[in-house]
């Protein structure tokens, strides 16, 4: 990855007037959630970029990095004890 993580994370934006403040890609009406769902369903980077030509490969990496940071900072609860 040539881009520094902080630069990638700058692609994730939060604007109250766009998708009620959900994390989006560069202020577009494309949510991080949608990108992650497409990847989870097996869509390839090429397919996503063809279907959404306003996106760049770095946007997909930014969505993954954002998700990584959320999960990495998550508090783990003993689910068996809960």
Comma- or semicolon-separated keywords:
single chain, 82 residues, mainly alpha, Arc Repressor Mutant, subunit A, two-stranded antiparallel sheet, 4 helices, 5% strand, globular
Contiguous low-pLDDT stretches (5 residues minimum) are none
Number of strands: 2
The termini sit apart by 39 Å
Beta-strand proportion: under 5%
CATH class: Mainly Alpha
Number of domains: 1
Give the SSE string.
HEEHHH
Named at the architecture level, the CATH assignment is Orthogonal Bundle
Question: How is this fold's topology laid out?
Answer:
Blueprint: H1 5-9, E1 12-13, E2 24-25, H2 32-40, H3 45-51, H4 57-72
Antiparallel strand pairs: 1-2
Helix pairs in contact: 2-4
Give an overview in words.
The protein is mainly alpha-helical. The chain has one domain: Arc Repressor Mutant, subunit A. 45% of the residues lie in helices and 5% in strands. It has four helices and two strands, in the order αββααα. Strands 1-2 form a two-stranded antiparallel sheet. The protein is globular, with a radius of gyration of 14 Å. The termini are far apart. The model has no long low-confidence stretch (mean pLDDT 89).
Summarize the structure.
This protein has 82 residues and is mainly alpha-helical.
């Amino acid at each position: 990855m040539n881009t520094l993580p902080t630069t990638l994370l700058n692609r994730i934006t939060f604007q109250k007037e766009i998708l009620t403040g959900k994390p989006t890609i560069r202020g577009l009406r494309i949510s991080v959630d949608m990108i992650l769902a497409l990847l989870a369903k097996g869509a390839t980077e090429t397919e996503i970029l063809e279907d959404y030509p306003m996106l760049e490969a770095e946007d997909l990496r930014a969505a993954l990095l954002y998700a990584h940071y959320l999960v990495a900072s998550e508090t783990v609860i003993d689910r068996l004890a809960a």
